[in-house]
Amino acid sequence: MHVIIVxxxxxxxxLAQRLGAEGHDVVIVEQxxxxxxxxxxxxxxxxxxxxxxxxxxLATAGIDxxxxxAGVTQNDEVNFITSLLxxxxxxxxxxxxxxxxxxxxxxxxxxxxxxxxxxxxxxDADTADEIMELARVSGADEVxxxxxxxxxxxxxxxxxxxxxxxxxxxxxxxxYESDRQFxxxxxTRDGETVIPRGDQRLAVDDHVRVLTNRSARHExxxxxxxxxxxxxxxxxLGGGAVGSRVAERLADEGTEVxxxxxxxxxxxxLSERLGLVTIVQGDIEDIDLLNEESITRMDxxxxxxxxxxxxxxxxxxxxxxxxxxxxxVLHRLALLPLVRQFGIDAALSPRTASANAVLRHVRGxxxxxxxxxxxxxEVDEFRIEAGSAADGGRVVDLHLPHSMxxxxxxxxxxxxxxxxxxxxxxxxxxxxxxxxxxxxxxxRKAFSA
Length: 449
Prior knowledge:
The protein is 33% helix and 26% strand. The protein is built from 16 helices and 22 strands.
């Protein structure tokens, strides 16, 4: 596919990296010369410098033969106009990022229909959704829904005292063979992530990603030694689009929520709009204020301001009390090492939340996608087509690349089940896979007629 990405911000870069790794022809259009130059040094993609609302710039990017255009700048108007220009040029699929609440709501419906975008994304809403998944499965540092939520991927570190530490995956598989509801799909140790095999021995502080049934999530966390509890008291730092959404949803679910917002006018607006949330006007870098509001006595602390450094420092302060689960929203991934160093439980980025939605749409036959901040391994869900190599075949006979592993199969009308070597796949089954991007074409070949 020929893909044009308008905007080289965090979402645009991440999309370009992922789609480029799959072998697609990717072009980034970026107006800022310095940003464009840095992209050219960082990624193996074509970069066009200019304003994407100019037809001549889109022509240089290859709009006449593009399959997909994604407008993901921070300017809603630019994204809308480029989508319209792409549709006029015959581009099959367009994706538009919209941040303005009015444009996302009923008042913007006519405009959205006029612009004919195939997918609307909102990084703030997507990030809030991911935070809520973490809040409901406290103890995990990553939670991704697959198969409409019937299956989930849990990311967590193996803690001291875990009964799995020191065991090989083969040993674990034999111990739970009779009713195995989980599969280890990725393991990170010393900064290197692999798709583990049966002889892989787990160790304390390994970070693992486990595919499991939603009903078994707490059991899995206990096996990993991760602490988990329902959050009765939560503090949200930052009342912007992400923080206000999360605070409102937590309060609606019965959590006692305190939200701290520095801007006085915004704090007043939130006080009027969020009747179930206690709004405090103040600076989240004010330690005295955090102490006054009992940050270390909270079950859950979420730092979602636009200042990454402030988010990290506030969560680090809260993490001093081990009972508090901390989540920091990051835009600059250079700060990720500090998250681990300071004992912060989880970090989220708008880039993965939105990119997952775009990848799901662009790939067509993929019904769910989960990508991660610190690894090129991802989790994808594919539908098996009638007449494909996988239709009627056993998993062990497919001879798939070592850079992927089948995790679970979901047959129509049946619950998902963890895949084994002798599992038979059939047309219309959905299969959840851990895979590196370069192996996705092989999967498509196996699952497509």
